[in-house]
Every structure is written in C-alpha cells, then in structure tokens.
TrEMBL record:
This is Cadherin domain-containing protein. It is a single-pass membrane protein. PANTHER family: CADHERIN-87A, PROTOCADHERIN-16-LIKE. It is found in: Membrane. Its main location: membrane. Keywords: Calcium, Cell adhesion, Glycoprotein, Membrane, Repeat, Transmembrane, Transmembrane helix. GO terms for molecular function: calcium ion binding. GO terms for cellular component: plasma membrane. It comes from the Eukaryota.
C-alpha cells in the first residue's frame, strides 16, 4: 500500500530557500525512507522606485563661483537588485534650469556650476532632480534642490546725463550766471545692500563748474564761475561715480562742454593806420585796399558793417559795407586823409571801431625801355676761356629820373652767361660744350618797373674733343669651329658725341690675328676670315680700335674682344697602336684582362668621350665599353685556336658619332721548342789549330714571338719575369774538331 503527497505549498521570505523532503512507505514491518533536497531561487522584479535621502536640498553659492564649483550632492537608493537597483541622476530641464546653469554627475549625483551666475539677474534657483533605475521598465522619483545665490559687488555704477540747454546739446551760454543748471546727472548701481549706494564727483573745468546732489541718486551740474567764450570756448569734464563696496568699483563719463557765444565783444581793426600809394592815372573803380576788422564773437554776433566819414562832397572813394574794399570813383589828383568805421549791433547798443586811411597819389612811369636791337647774335668756339667778354646790349627809356634808370637781366641760361645789370656788358660764365648744346637762345629783360625783352642767340662751333666710346669695354662671344668663312660673329658699336667728320667712327683690328678674323671698318661687324679649328686654338683675344674721322689729330679708343671656339665633332677617335698582337696562355684565367685598348679623341665633352665595341661578338673574348679592357670570357685549351682576330671599334658620343677601328691578333701560346737560327753554319778553321779548340757558335730561339710583332697581354707560365721585356733568346752549341 502506498501513499503520496499530491501538493506542497512553500512561502519564501528570502531570495534563496533550501527545503528537505522525507518520503516513506506505510509498511509496518519494513518501512523504507527517502530524503529529497530542494533549492528555490526567487527572481527579482523592478517593483521599487529610487528613494532620495531628503525630499528637498538647500545650497548657498556666491555669484562669482567658478565653473565646475560643487553646489551639493543628492543621494537616492533603490532596494531592487542588479540593474534594477542602479540609480542614475538627471536634471529635469523641462521644468527647471532651462539655461543649463548647473550640471549633475549622473552616477554620483554631484551638482556643479555649468555657466556663470548673476545675482542681479536671478538670485534664487530651484532644480528638479530626477533619479531613475536601469530596469527594463525604469522607476522614477524626484527631489527639489534650492540654490540661493549670494550677492557680491560685481557691477560698476551707471551714469546718465541729460543736458538742460534749449537744443539739448552739450553747451552752456557764456552769459550763464552762478548756479545756473547745465545738466541733470543720475547714477545707479544694480548691486544690492550697501554696495548699492553711489557717490559722484566732478573732474576738470578749471573750477568753473560744480556738482550738487539733489537726492540719493541724482546730481546737478552747475556753473560755479564767470565764463568767457573768447578765452575758453570748450571744457573737458569727467563725472566719476563710485559705490561703497569692497573693493570699490568706479565708472566715469567724459564729455566736452561747449561755451556758446554772447554778443559781448566790439570789433577791432587789423591796423589803426593804413597808408596806400596809388598812381595818378588810376581808373575809376580801381581797387585801393581792403580794411578788415575782427570780432572775437562768432556767428551772427561777429557780423561787421563798414563805412567811412567823407570829409567833403565829391569824395573820390567808395567802401563796400560788407567786405571793407575801398575803390576809386573818380580820377585822383592829390593826397587824401579819411576815417573808416566798423560797426556791429547787439540788443542794447551798437559797438564800433575806427581807423585812419592816408592815400598818396604817385606820378606814373608810363614808358617802357626799348632795346637798340630786337635780337643779338654771337658765334663762339667750343670751350672758350670763362669770364671772356662777349659784347654789350643797350636799351633806352623816355622817362626821367628814377623811372629812366635801367637794369638788365637774363631770364634764361644764366649759368653759362652773365650780364652786368647796370652796363649791359655780356660775359661768358663757364665753358661751352657743343655736345650738350650747340645753340643757346636767351631772353634779356630791362626793368624797373616797366620792362622790355630782346633775344640773345649764341652759336657754338664744334671741336674734336670727344673720343669714340664703345658700348662695352670687353666683348665676349662664341662661334662654332664649323662656321663657314665670312660668318658674322658680332657687331661692335662705338659712338662719338662730336659732329660731322669728328663724329664719324671707323673700326680696325689692332693686332694681327693670323688673318683668322676681319672687321667691317664702317659697320664694326666682325667676321671669320678662314675656317676655324678648335683643336688648333680654342680661344682668340684681340683688340678692336675705333677712330674718329678728324683729319688733324684723330681720337681713338680700344675694346677687347674674346672669341671662344665652340667644339664640333670633327675628329674620330685614334688608337694609340694599330694593329696589336697579343699572346695568351692556355692557363689564363676567365675574366682576366688580356689587353687594354687605348684611343684618344681631341674633341671636347661627349664629342671626345670614347667607347669601345667589338665589330662582332666573339666566343672567347669580350671588351669593356668604357675602359677598353679585352677580357677572356671562356677557358682555353691547347689547340683550341692558333690565332684569333678581333676588330675593335672606338666611337665617340657626338652627334653624329665618329668612329675608327683597330685589328687585334691574339696568339694562343704553345710549348716553346728550341730550334737553330740557321739551317747550316760555316766557319773557317786555321791550319794547325789546337785540339779541342773553339771553332764555331750556333744559336737557337724560342719561336713564340718575333721582333716584328709587339708583345701585349698576359702570357701564362712565361719563361720571363713580368718586369722583363720579352726578347728572342738563344742557346749556344760549340763544335770541336779533332785531327788525327
């Protein structure tokens, strides 16, 4: 029989719960028991919102607090676990701090200053700080942070000025009395408390003005002394306002106060006495003089009217009332004295000044002097002696006395000529230069006070006083050595400032140039007279003479000409030795130099640079194009060849390139064998010669080379030292004859 538990209810009060179950059967004699351990894990749900430690936070902060200054720190907890219990802080910008004056650390809840604060704009701030968890469906809670901004003295007082003149301009009348109000000045400080109080002071004005306080923030600018625009018409005034804060802040306002004019100054003539001379034949309406009276006032207050007191009827003068110009009305015949008046009007009575005028009538000098000739002509040699007398001019005047006294003047070219002002004698002041001016046209004048004019013309005769001058002291030119005969090289230019034949220039070559060059004597064109060869001479330096055409004592000058001969590729390379016979041993190593070709080219640059080539590629030998070294490129063995012929071509790098060739004969050396130099030998043996006597000498040679072929290259296992020049050698055989 069995029993079972159909259900089990467990109440959990913690996140982890451990349970044990025992099961047994109901057999009375042999009961069986089983134990079951059960662990239950309770999973968290985000069912708790964050909770702030305070429902409202309070903070005090100076308005000059620096950015990122700590304000306060809020704190909230969440009893959930994991991300459901992690709290994030933020400021609700929709409901508070839209200007973002504050910022909060989302993790720590620390609030800091984010933008400058201003007590005067907003002394109190309320921030709504919201805390939320990081659950999938986050929970929120909020708290209020109240920030009180503390005032400091950070604002300067402001100054406003209202001027009380009729036009509202910055001015005051010079007739203003003591205590007259000039301007109303109001001051204000936006700071609160004691720093809000403001005091004001005045600077400048030479004591002519003062400040009077009307109430706490209003002052009046008043006249404090007598004003005189004619002495000082402008005052620079400065209003200084300061508060009572610590430190004290100042502000100032500077302005220019103009003193307006009052009609309080009489006119004054420039002179008390005017003396004028006028000719007796002055026409009616002739201007006599301007009388002027000044007035220290300005504007309409300075308007002056002129008049004169006429001594009798028929007075011959008139004065313009506005300008003060005095003119004649009728002909004059004697001396006149009269008084002129200057008058200005003000509200009370006219103001007036007077001056005396004396007119002296003079006799008229009505005749001009007359020269005896309208024009004077002189001819002078170039470079005459200075101070020489040229001649004289004469003039007459029909007037008498001082009016007939004449003075002579030169109106032009006074640096070359002089005239005696009293006698009219003409002198030469300095030497004349034909090349600078060959004709001098001068105007003379006779004066005091009437004048007349006459012409003086001086013709200068040329002298040969200038040598030809080359356009250059030295000429440097280049010409190709292939230039044909008659080629134009350059044109030398020389000029002579003299005139006529004295200024004609002829060219010639000063020294013998071996007839290589010629010059056109009139044009100065330098040409080649024969074919040039740079290899014979690469540069010519000679002198060209320029001579003028004066028949007596011609003058000349010299210029240096340097002609560089430019190279052309007209020389083919030349071998130092041709043909060349070489001996090479079978033991010669590969890449070893057998012989070095030598070739030269008398041209320059690329035209003279030589390169080497074989006319045909060779199986055993190659040549270095730049050095000319012929090298073995394959091993040799006896009997592989007897003689090898190579055709070497030497070319230059000119355009077009020139070349030459050389024959190189290379012998493969065999083992040397001794042979007699002659096929037979004959000798005479004297009768009765001693037994075993010396009767003849036979010679032998190694047949590997002959005297007619130059030795070159490398000879392996040579019987001679390398320092010894190979020569034919011999062995000697002595024959002995014995008679019975």
């Amino acid at each position: 029989m069995r029993s079972c538990i159909s259900s089990c209810s467990v109440c959990c009060v913690s996140t982890n719960l451990g349970l044990s179950f025992n099961a047994c059967d109901l057999h009375l004699k042999h009961a069986r028991l089983t134990l079951l351990q059960v662990e239950i894990h309770v999973l968290d749900e985000n069912d708790n919102a964050p909770v702030f430690s305070q429902s409202k936070y309070h903070a005090l902060l100076w308005e000059n607090a620096a950015l990122l200054t700590s304000v306060c720190q809020v704190y909230a907890t969440d009893s959930d676990l994991g991300s459901n219990g992690q709290v994030v802080y933020e400021i609700n910008r929709r409901q508070s701090d839209p200007s973002e004056l504050f910022v909060i650390d989302s993790a720590t809840g620390l609030i800091r200053v984010n933008n400058p604060l201003d007590y005067e704009s907003q002394p109190y701030h309320e921030l709504i700080v919201r805390a939320r968890d990081n659950g999938i469906q986050p929970e929120y809670s909020s708290t209020l942070v109240a920030v009180t901004v503390l005032n400091i003295n950070d604002n300067r007082p402001t100054i406003n000025i209202m001027f009380l003149s009729e036009s509202g301009a910055e001015e005051v009348s010079e007739g203003a009395s003591m205590g007259h109000y000039v301007a109303r000045i109001s001051v204000y400080d936006p700071d609160l408390g004691e720093v809000n109080s403001v005091r004001a002071s005045l600077e400048g004005g030479d004591g002519k003005f003062t400040l009077k306080q009307s109430d706490e923030f209003v002052f009046s600018l008043c006249v404090n002394g007598e004003l005189d625009r004619e002495k000082s018409d402008l005052y620079e005034l400065t209003i200084v306002a300061s508060d009572f804060g610590a430190p004290t802040l100042f502000s100032e306002r500077t302005f220019l106060l103009k003193v307006s004019d009052e009609n309080d100054s009489p006119p004054v003539f420039e002179k008390h006495l005017y003396i004028v001379n006028i000719s007796e034949d002055a026409f009616p309406g002739s201007r006599l003089l301007h009388v002027r009276a000044g007035d220290l006032d300005e504007g309409v207050n300075s308007v002056v009217r002129y008049s004169m007191i006429k001594p009798d009827q028929g007075f011959p003068f008139h004065i313009d009332s506005e300008s003060g110009l005095i003119t004649t009305e009728t002909p004059l015949d004697h001396e006149y004295h009269f008084t002129v008046l200057a008058t200005k009007w003000n509200e009370c009575a006219p103001q007036q000044a007077s001056a005396t005028v004396i007119i002296t009538v003079l006799d008229e000098n009505d005749n001009a002097p007359v020269f005896t000739h309208n024009a004077y002509f002189y001819t002078l040699q170039e470079r005459p002696s200075p101070q020489g007398l040229m001649g004289a001019v004469r003039a007459t005047d029909k007037d008498s006395g001082k009016n007939s006294q004449l003075s002579y003047f030169l109106l032009s070219d006074a640096k070359h000529f002089q005239i005696n002002p009293n006698t009219g004698l003409l002198h030469l002041a300095r030497s004349l230069d034909y090349e600078l001016a060959n004709v001098h046209a001068i105007v003379m004048k006779g004066a005091i006070p009437r004048s007349s004019h006459a012409k003086l013309q001086v013709l200068v005769l040329d002298e040969n006083d200038n040598s030809p001058v080359f356009s250059q002291e030295t000429y440097h030119v280049s010409v190709s050595e292939g230039a044909p005969v008659g080629s134009e090289i350059l044109q030398v230019i020389a000029t002579d400032n003299d005139q006529g034949s004295n200024g004609e220039v002829m060219f010639s070559l000063l020294e013998d140039t071996l007839a290589v060059f010629s010059i056109d004597e009139s044009m100065g064109i330098l040409r080649t007279a024969q074919l040039l060869n740079r290899e014979a001479q690469g540069q010519y330096t000679f002198h060209v003479t320029a001579t003028d055409g004066c028949s007596q004592g011609p003058r000349s000058s010299i210029a240096t000409v340097t002609v560089d001969i430019e190279d052309v590729n007209d020389n083919a390379p030349a071998f130092a030795e041709n043909p060349i016979v070489c001996l090479v041993s079978k033991d010669t190593a590969v890449n070893q130099t057998v012989v070095t070709m030598r070739a030269g080219d008398s041209d320059l640059g690329n035209n003279g640079t030589v390169i080497f080539d074989l006319s045909e590629s060779d199986k055993f030998f190659s040549i270095d194009r730049n050095t000319g070294e012929i090298q073995l490129k394959a091993s040799l063995s006896p009997g592989i060849f007897v003689t090898r012929l190579l055709h070497v071509i030497a070319s230059d790098r000119g355009t077009p390139s020139l070349s030459s060739s050389s024959l190189v004969r290379i012998h493969l050396e065999e083992e040397p064998k001794l042979r007699f130099t002659e096929d037979s030998y004959m000798t005479a043996i004297p009768e009765n010669s001693k037994t075993a006597g010396k009767s003849a000498k036979c010679g032998g040679i190694w047949p590997s080379r002959t005297r007619t072929e130059p030795y070159c290259g490398v000879r392996a296992s040579s019987p001679y030292p390398s320092s010894v020049k190979p020569m034919p050698f011999s062995r000697f055989l002595f024959l002995f004859f014995k008679y019975p």
